[in-house]
Amino acid sequence: MKLLHAVTCKKYSQVVEGLLIAGTEIEACLDGKTPLIISVEAGDLETAKVLLDWEAVVGARDGDNQTALHLAAANGHDLITRLLHQWGADKEAKDKKGQTALQLVAANGYNLAARLLIDWGADMEAMDEGKQRALYLIAANGCNPIIRLLTDKGASKEAVDDLEWSALNVRGALPYKVG
Prior knowledge:
Blueprint: H1 3-9, H2 13-21, H3 35-41, H4 45-53, H5 68-74, H6 78-86, H7 101-108, H8 111-119, H9 134-141, H10 144-152, H11 167-171
Helix pairs in contact: 1-2, 1-3, 2-4, 3-4, 3-5, 5-6, 5-7, 7-8, 7-9, 8-10, 9-10
């Protein structure tokens, strides 16, 4: 393991900064992950700040083609989600399954991260490879506060995936398939 990656995953932001001052490569990858990706996965706001201040690439991607914003939002790291937005993270970036950060939040049920992304204008109708939208993924996981948030903001309840199922079908609101 590279030293910068090791201290990043241990939440040692001061050591990370010292290594960067000493000239350590900020974008070096280990197992497809940059130090920023590792700090975000660990929920380490301070190290993420240090790395961004040192010009880490906010749009860097891991082996699943996920950005730091995907990982922050999907893991409920709300403060890091805000930080990445302030640094210009692409809220519409798609991972290898075609999912945006909002779709990952929907699948994992993090209310505040969902609200932040929606307030910032994330596309509620973006589709992944299975033509599933955020509302469909939320309905499948039964996260009622996010369902209400998306429907109040105008997300389509009737939009269907490639199997012709809508969020209403998944949620059990209708006894039959739409279409």
